[in-house]
Specification:
Chain A has 114 residues and is an alpha+beta fold. The first copy, chain A, has five helices and three strands, in the order H-H-E-H-H-E-E-H. In chain A, strands 1-3-2 form a three-stranded antiparallel sheet. Chain A is globular, with a radius of gyration of 17 Å. The structure holds a DNA duplex (30 and 30 nucleotides).
DNA sequence: CACAATTCCTACTTTTTGGTAACTATGTCA
DNA sequence: TGACATAGTTACCAAAAAGTAGGAATTGTG
């Protein structure tokens, strides 16, 4: 115990979690994982996230793309088409996230009491 | 896909994750899990979290206690002694969190590039 | 009596995050 | 011509989170 450097242990995992621990990222990842085709367009997601503003969805997707969890593909058409999907890294995260969601469902009542 | 209600799916899990997805909670849980005795005092934790202010540690512990993830026991001594430990619910969360931490360690370089 | 140790709390300020609304570009359809 | 659709961006504002600095309570010790 005495030889644990908290800074060392805390920082890496915090940096990782901060990539998808915000208000909307998890939902985006979850929706992309759920999609039949593995692909979703901007406004398609918007329809599932009615209380998320355009700005926040855009920002969230940009962050996830920068973290290499989501792949963004632009088709040079008019009107523009942009397709989002999970990267390999993003897919590898899903089992862990789904386990977390399962835990959440199971223990919701114990944890969220107010 | 078409029958997923985003509000329904998003809210519960977000509420759960918000209980330990903040800046310090994960570290507290991790430290308590790591402790030999399963118990840590306030200033003991402080020594491992040098960049966390007193206020934030206090606040974090209060939140974790309210979420029934951490147990707080006060001993009526002078100077006061307060011991923190994981609850049963808290302990049940640890395997999931450790898996997340493992994923984080493995994929850190892919995700954190800036 | 002053001080130290322990576990906080409170007021104040700064930083980060999120929301609203308006704007852009471009080609299609009526 | 002008409204529509898509995938955003930008400016501005409000709210929430976090940091700083100081105080409070208790009581045994020098």
């Amino acid at each position: 115990m005495a030889d644990i450097k908290a800074e060392y242990l805390a920082c890496p995992i915090r940096q990782v979690i901060s990539r998808f621990g915000d208000k909307w990222s998890l939902l985006v990842l979850f929706l992309l994982n759920r999609s039949d085709t593995g692909v979703l367009r901007f406004n398609e997601m918007r329809r599932f996230m009615t209380d998320c503003s355009q700005k926040m969805l855009s920002q969230t997707l940009k962050n996830l793309e920068q973290s290499h969890l989501v792949h963004r593909e632009v088709f040079p058409e008019v009107p523009p088409r942009v397709e989002y999907s999970l990267t390999e890294t993003g897919r590898s995260l899903m089992p862990v996230l789904l386990a977390l969601i399962e835990w959440g469902k199971e223990h919701f009542d114990e944890v969220v009491t107010d």
